[in-house]
Amino acid sequence: MVEIEKKERLVLKFIDRLDATNAEETSDAISKEMETLNQDIELEVNRLEYISSAGLQVILKCAKAAKAAGKEIYLHGAKGNVLEIFRLSGFLTFLKEI
């Protein structure tokens, strides 16, 4: 599940799980925001318990949209297994931790 807020940045708050059961729905919700991206993206994951490869694809889509728009993408609140998955997958090389 994802909650979307527009503040200084486009804040995407991921909650519980981001996996094959909800990745498509989450991607569809985010896609609308990515079409006219005019601000940096903040991925808030402090309430995310699990992320699978399908979830990582959603994050990668966000990163590609940010890069195409000349914007930054930030990761906020990663901990435990979620942080380890981001680290092992190499995503921390392009996500800026805040």
Short description:
The chain is an alpha/beta fold and 98 residues long. The chain has helices at residues 23-34, 53-68, 80-89; strands at 2-6, 10-18, 41-51, 73-76, 96-97.
Can you give a write-up of this model?
The chain has three helices and five strands; from the N terminus they run ββαβαβαβ. The chain is globular and about 30 Å long. It has a single domain, classed as Transcription Regulator spoIIAA (2-Layer Sandwich). A hairpin with a 3-residue loop joins strand 1 and strand 2. With 98 residues, it is α/β, with parallel strands linked by helices. The longest helix is centred in the middle third of the chain and has 16 residues. Strands 1-2-3-4-5 form a five-stranded mixed β-sheet. The model has no long low-confidence stretch (mean pLDDT 95). Helix 1 runs parallel beside helix 2.
Number of helices: 3
Rg result: 12 Å
Order of helices and strands: EEHEHEHE
Q: What ranges have pLDDT less than 50 throughout 5 or more consecutive residues?
A: none
Could you say which overall geometry the principal axes of the C-alpha atoms support?
Answer: globular
Number of strands: 5
State the CATH topology: Transcription Regulator spoIIAA
Report the helical percentage: 25-40%
| CATH architecture descriptor name | 2-Layer Sandwich
Number of domains: 1
Distance between the termini: 21 Å
Q: What proportion of the residues form beta strands (DSSP E)? A: 25-35%
**CATH superfamily, called what?**
STAS domain
In the CATH hierarchy, what is the class? Alpha Beta
